[in-house]
Amino acid sequence: MHYNLKQNLLVVTFLLIGISSFISFDNTIVSASLTDSTDLSVLKAAPSGISVDKYMSNSAPSVPEKGDIYTTNSAQILDTSGNNSINGNIIALASGKNTYGSIWSNDKTFDINKEQTISAWLYFGSGDGSQDVNSEGIAFVLQNDDKGIAALGAGLEGLGVYGYDASQFTIVSGTAASQSYIQKTAIQNSIALEFDSDNNSFYTPTAPINNDGLTVPPSISQIVNGAYFSLDGYDTQLGTSATSLTSSGFSDKVKYGAGGAYGHIALTYPSFANPYKKIDSLSSAYSPWTEGYVLAHDGAQQAQLTDGTDEYGNPFQWHHVTIKWIPASSGSTKATLEYSYNDKNIDYSDNTSTKSDIKELTSSIPVDTSKLNSSDGKVRWGFTAANGASSNVASKLVALDSAPGLLYADADSDIVDTTLGNKKITESSTDNTVADGDSLKLNYELNYISGNEDWKDIAAKIKIPDDTTVTPDSDGNVATITYSDGTTENISSSELSNSTIQHTLAKTIGTTASAAGKTATITINATAKNKTSSNINVAKSVATFIGSNEISTTNSPAFTILANPSYSLKLSNTNSSNELNLLYKLDNATLNLPTELTYSDNHSFEDSTNILYQITAGGKEFTVGASASGTSYDQTIDLKSLMDDDTFWNIFTEDSTQTVTIKAIDQANGLVSNTLTYKVITKPNKTLSMTVSNNLAFQNINAGDTTKYLHRKTNFKLSVTSLREPWLLSVSTKGLYLNGQTLNKNLALVYRKDSNSTYSTLSSTPTLIDQNTTSYETSNTDNISDDWNKNTGLLLKQLGANTAGQYTGTLSWSVTDALNNN
After folding, report:
1. Sequence ranges of the domains in the chain
2. Which residue in 228, 367, 392, 813 is a FRET match for 107, CA 20 to 30 A apart?
């Protein structure tokens, strides 16, 4: 179109009037202490946070594009006094109007092929009076940009991570940036989880923001040279479908724009071109521009990213977020990013509020890891942020509890009721009741999962649950720390104050040689207290473990201390005697404990009342459960069935008397019965023994004596005693000797059972002497030699002429189980 000079001047005059409401942008940024009273108040109330200077850094951005004026980086590290500090624990990403910044891990420490967790606190502003006060927002970013720690996107709606929608103001018109330009000015190879605290929408128009520091009105020379503005419409919600992006790695939750009066949370791919969609027909508020860009958001969720108040009217300024990365399965590029926003209160207790401005928000979003363009899976992680143009805009602050790649640790808690049979209560327990006076173990387990450093300088701060009293031991210690290397450490009662234990662990946990293993368990002995007539519901109680390089927290599980019932639980022995006989190692042996269980007022057990029987024997404890019903519940418990054979017979040894105790626990009502005592007498199961004389002498003979069988001249005792053991008795011998010479050709030992029996010559092969196939239930003794006379039993047979002298020999007797020899 052609215009004459007069027409051009008229257009200029019109446009000068039209831009009188444009907002000027100041890009002169200087790192400095924060002095604003609001900032200082927020910093004073900041969470602990780990020192980040060792792990994170940034630099001025590299800006190759002519139109990109985002040439500074306002991110800095502060302490809680607002001063720059190398030991600071607060990251100020943007402070003051129109500021923007980024900060990154020094190295590519985020491995997308491994599970990762980051825990952080975010501050956006109050939002009082105007949405602009807490604009624009913060983004958690993974990036593999060649610029490294100099990577930075556009300010304002760009949140320091997205590309610059550099809409140019010319003499005759307004032109939008190209999609490729926006793509190039974003942080490359990146994935962002945005916490956008402003709704940048064309449908709620604000004046385009001037990014070139032009005067108002701009000079003709500035207009001729071109002036760039952000049209501020990335969050515009379109009615058109965005599902065409699913083939490019987005999930089916993708949509153009996002809602939320005071913000939203969403996943984006900043350097991917297609998510930036050009729309036309902008309202007259954007004249002379008719085109602008909106951004596709994946899994967008409305969120009020501003200060709130809890149920008690306390300020809720810092917002905790836990971000978990779940890697893609082998061969896939689909990872998952999960987040829990507002999951903790400022004291690290679990946030259970249902108030809309501070309630917890969670989501799980699929992530296309190919957008990171990483060959080894290693990328940088960090934060970006930007502020809006309001002179009252709040600083964008971050405090870290943990840093990916540095170390990954967590804490967990449970309660064990030792009175109620070591009943364990966890956050997911369905039975979380205890009784007044019950002995409790409050357990806090610190777990080092992975990392490049040990978890160091761990300061534990444990709030004791309400209505429980810590029970010191005889040395005045209130807790014990047990490390996984087997070492222990005591916590003195002097470290307990106002129901809170504070103690710095003497050792580190981790994987280096100097660490005390990968876990540390803190056990506190306590007693439950309820002297009221009603149940007491004890709320969760927070425990924090603040190390120099990791902060982990947990909450003790909620539980209920039951009111004291007016009745008791009575356990009786249904036997007439408390003595129980046991046969040692009897096959299929049982040890039955007969019991009867009743309530003192004879009321009935509720349907299937859970009863736990706690039994002690031989210094060991055994438990068995049952479901009681009726007014009287009889239960015979086979104690042997609760142990393996070796354990059982090591306790109930032969010929011993052992004490066994048993008590019943009604866990639902917190009742513990009286204790019954049984006396278990373990008798031999089978016995088999033999009595035999040590010496046997035969009659003397003179030379020429031809007596064939020589009689015994001394008494000889031979008997067998048995209990449930049929037997066989045999004897063997090598014969008689004289001066070491055998006399087997001269003499032979023989056995004759009775006068009707033949003589059996004894040899080195055992000869059966007697047997008894009866299994006696009481001990029985067979006196075998009592039936011998001078012509029966053991005799000496002459075989030939004998040499003068004293003959000697040995008899070997053996009694064996007859059943094993059948």
Report:
1. 5-104+128-311+383-399, 410-562, 569-683, 687-821
2. 367
Question: Which CATH number applies to 410-562: 2.60.40.740, 3.40.50.720, 2.60.40.420, 1.10.620.20?
Answer: 2.60.40.740
CA-CA-CA-CA torsion for 471, 473, 478, 481, nearest 10 degrees? -130
Whether residue 136 is preceded by a cis peptide bond, meaning omega within 30 degrees of 0, is yes
Please state which CATH class domain 569-683 belongs to.
mainly beta
Query: Does 203 score more than 70 pLDDT?
Result: yes
What are the DSSP calls for 137-176, one per residue?
EEEEEEE--TTGGG----SGGGTTTSPP--EEE-SS-EEP
User: In this structure, which amino acid lies at residue 34?
Assistant: L
The verdict on domain 687-821 having CATH code 2.60.40 is: yes
What's the CA gap between 182 and 268, in Å, rounded? 14
Contact 140, 383 (CB under 8 A): yes
Q: Is the pLDDT of residue 428 over 80?
A: yes
Burial class of 243 by CB neighbour count within 10 A (0 to 12, 13 to 18, 19+) = exposed
If one counts every other C-beta atom within 10 angstroms of the C-beta of residue 377, the result is 16
Question: Could you read off the pLDDT of 162-173 as tens digits, one per residue?
Answer: 999 988 877 667
Task: For residue 174, give the nearest of 164, 166, 184 by alpha carbon.
Answer: 166
| Tens of pLDDT, residues 350-399 | 999 999 889 999 999 999 999 999 999 999 999 999 998 888 899 999 99
d(CA 487, CA 497): 26
- CA torsion 759-761-766-769 (nearest 10°) is 20
CA distance 661 to 575: 15
| Confidence (pTM) | 0.74
Q: Compute φ and ψ for 8, nearest 5 degrees.
A: -60, -40
pLDDT digits (tens, 9 = 90+) for 566-587: 899 999 999 989 999 999 988 8
HSE, CB side, 13 Å, CA atoms: give it for residue 412.
Answer: 11
- The radius of gyration of the chain's CA atoms, rounded to the nearest angstrom, is 45
Q: How far apart are CA 368 and CA 250, in angstroms?
A: 7
